[in-house]
Amino acid sequence: MDRAKNGDADAYGDLVRRYQQIALRTAYVVTRSATEAEDATQEAFTKAYFALDRFRAGAPFRPWILRIVANEARNRRVRSARRPTVGLETVRDRALGDTALSPEAAALAGESKAVLSAALGRLREEDRLVIAYRYYFDLSEAEMAEALGVARGTVKSRLSRALGRLRAGLDGV
Amino acid sequence: MASDLRRLSDDELGAALRAGASAEEPRFTDVWPAVRERIAAGPVRRGRLSLLRSPRYGLAPLAVTLALLLATAFALSPAALSAAAEALGLRGVQIFQAPATPAATARATGASSTPAISSNPTGATASPAAAALGEAMSMAEARQRASFAVVAPLDPALGAPDEVHVRAIPGGNQVNLVYRTRPGFPTSVQAGVAALFSEFRGSVDPGLFVKVLGPDATVEQVVVDGQRGFWIAGAPHQFFYRDGAGNIYPESLRLAGNTLLWERDGLLLRLEAQVDRETAMRIASSVR
Predict the structure, then answer these.
(1) Mean pLDDT value of segment B235-239
(2) Could you give the 3-state DSSP secondary structure of residue B24?
């Protein structure tokens, strides 16, 4: 981190490679498009490099970069003003067609994933992010607060409200 | 099966989500080669900042930029506006980013469709005491006049404001504190002031203010005293009002500086100054 801060591009490369997977997945949660997720992540890491001097020494890098990534991804979505498209619809169709065939035991491991994924896709991106941070990426509460740019005390209630809306959204399936 | 899922507790639902974590995620390509190339090419152009610093540019490019942004603003559909508000809304404010090619939009919109603007956007910036700020008065008078309890930054670097203005806005009024030259605060060449602090009671009406960002501006969510805010840097960006009928008007005073926008006890606060994020955050947290 210190080496990267001092303009060592290779050291920054290590940081990029270490965090790009979670960054890409975060961007994908927002954009639901692999191409846009990659563009947003690229943009975010580039901007972050030139903003390293504003990065507080000793602060965790992960939530900081995630916040920039989510912002970039959001901007991209705003710019293209596009709703989540193909990927989601495919998942939903599959879920609808297959539910009757699935044995009880396989439910949670199998089709429920698709059902959940479809319901997730219908949530607001804010809700998707809080759920992804908690259950996909296992971020701590402090990291979530930093990455979401909210007060730490509100993380739990945000997550709980997001889950509530997810549950409500399962009605439509 | 959906009904089975609905019966799960938060923890169980979380476990189900965890199990499906990467179910349908695509394989991503390594972004580092592209990032390395872009880093080697140098920092991205920071629109307004370089414009302020460079003596080559006068006000003309600024006027052009504003005109383009205006045209872009009018061209935006209500759907685009509400999508942006969903992502970046603060009470009473909408922020959205103009497309990367505002010139094309401007051409498509055409001059004839641009509604009349009450004041000349560049002419009014000559003096910060322009009508745009509202009536000048003492702080004590402002406190009486304002429709809310007036707050101000207590940070010693800013000290007391040099001018206090109160202006009527839809549904209430806005208090503007003007800080002229201050050590450590670059003075805006447009407005001749170092910092501008504005406050008004944000209404839940989503259309009161519109903030337009150029493609080079960055927006970052921040937390000030536990409340939500946005740090907008890398101009150009521009404030507009939207009245009840949906007409958009530019705000006449602009510092073209970095902007911190945040909420505090139902008030929408805005600090504009050409300072870095840390300084802005420090000043913001001194507001009482």
Answers:
(1) 56
(2) coil
Average pLDDT, chain A: 78
pLDDT digits (tens, 9 = 90+) for B265-284: 778 888 888 888 889 999 99
A38: nearest CB among B24, B29, B227? B29
Report CB contact under 8 Å: B32, A20: yes
Give the strands of the sheet with B93-97, arranged side by side. B93-97, B209-213, B237-242, B248-250
Per residue in B133-180, pLDDT (tens digit) is 788 999 999 999 998 899 999 999 899 999 999 988 766 788 999 888
Whole-angstrom distance, CA of residue A49 vs CA of residue A68:
11
Burial class of B74 by CB neighbour count within 10 A (0 to 12, 13 to 18, 19+): middle
CA distance B203 to B225: 20
Q: Residue B87 in 3-state DSSP?
A: helix
Answer whether A108's CB lies under 8 Å from B19's CB: yes
- Other C-beta atoms closer than 10 Å to the C-beta of A81 total 15
Instruction: Using a CB–CB cutoff of 8 Å, tell me whether B245 touches chain A.
Output: no
Chain A within 8 Å of B37 (Cβ-Cβ)? no
Distance of CA A87 to the CA centre of its chain: 16
pLDDT in tens, B21-53: 655 678 888 999 999 888 887 765 433 332 223
Q: How far is B158 from chain A (nearest CA, A)?
A: 22
Cβ <8 Å between A41 and B31:
yes
C-beta of residue B235 within 8 angstroms of C-beta of residue B256: yes
Q: Give pLDDT, residue A86.
A: 33
Residue B1: which of A98, A71, A58, A59 has the closest Cα?
Answer: A98
Structure tokens at B216: 């080079």
| Its pTM surpasses 0.80 | no
Spatial separation of the C-alpha atoms in residues B219 and B228, rounded to whole Å = 13
Q: Dig out the tokens for B143 from the structure.
A: 């406190």
Closest in A28, A160, A173 to B10, CB measured: A160
